[in-house]
Amino acid sequence: MSEVADHIEEHRAQLSPAERRVAEVVLRDPECVAFGTVARVAERAGTSGASVVRLSTRLGYPGYSGLQAAVQRAIGQQLRPAVERIRDMRAPSPTGATSVAGAGPDVLSRTLRAELDNVDRTISGVAAEAFERAVGLLADRRRPVRVVAGDAEAGVGAMLTTALALVREDVMQVGGSDVAVARQLAGAGPETVLVAIDLRRYERWVVDHVTHAVADGATLVAVTDSPLSPLAALATVSFAVAAEGAGPFDSHVGTLALTNALVTGVAGRLHRSATRRLDAVEAAWRGAGALVEP
Q: How far is it, in rounded angstroms, from Cα 270 to Cα 164?
């Protein structure tokens, strides 16, 4: 969906409320657009068919059919790699056994398809320029990094914080009560890099505290699920992750893959200092007998 999502991002400020609702359907349920009618999309968005057509032309397409064709192309590009990988994983091993993931119950194969698709859509949708800019911000050791994550994304935020703190100093995850968060972000200013991770439905405390920090000059890197997210609107650099779960809950696999990529980029950018820091941490662990050797 990168082409269509890029057009939505480019015209985000010009969209009417009705057009924004249609854009959300395009981003969240592309199959509805790819295989549905104008009336069906309008129904999903809670608006009129005219709004669907207006959005299509505003994004530069020759009417709804043009938008539909672009979404169909994007879906084909996204699914093909996942289908190929699934077939590879189902192939018999040299002993004649079949991969457990491919031979398991339906829930396992549905999960496999969903998560492969999430990772592929998330990573392939990242613009190289945006990625390099975010890595540059996170690798600037003169700038403190503060991570803010919604409740469901707190685990991913913790993993990002821990990994970044192993390769550079002054990295902290912000959390707790409103009073605690306000205190932890009180010093955030133009030198602070803020990483915000949250998916719809967006938590008010995350949006409110990030808004205040950005108003005070902090630079925001947003990891969210839509270019129409309130976090994306505040961000210097924004990434949209795919989060479709095989079950009733959002998936965080694509989000984790993106944050892993950011950490890898920072580690590469800070190779010498990161190596020294990791060596020191490893020596401290061994000196304290903290590790159980295999």
A: 11
d(CA 112, CA 22): 29
Please work out, in degrees rounded to the nearest 5, the angle formed at the alpha carbon of residue 240 by the alpha carbons of 176 and 202: 35
Angle between helices 253-269 and 271-287 (to 10 degrees): 110
**What is the rounded CA–CA span in Å between residue 205 and residue 211?**
10
Domain ranges of the chain: 1-104, 128-284
| Residue pLDDT, tens place only, 53-84 | 999 999 999 999 999 999 888 776 555 444 45
d(CA 276, CA 278): 6
Fold exhibited by the domain 1-104: Arc Repressor Mutant, subunit A (1.10.10)
Looking at residue 145, its pLDDT comes to 98
Torsion sign across C-alpha atoms 219, 225, 231, 234: positive
Residue range 222-248, pLDDT digits in tens: 999 888 888 998 999 999 999 888 888
Positive or negative, the CA dihedral 245, 248, 250, 252 is: negative
- The backbone torsions φ and ψ at residue 74, rounded to the nearest 5 degrees and listed phi first, read -65, -40
The CA-CA-CA angle for residues 132, 259, 89, to 5°, reads 110
For 128-284, CATH number?
A: 3.40.50.10490
Please state, in angstroms and as integers, the Cα–Cα distance from residue 222 to each residue in 73, 265, 268, following that order. 27, 17, 21
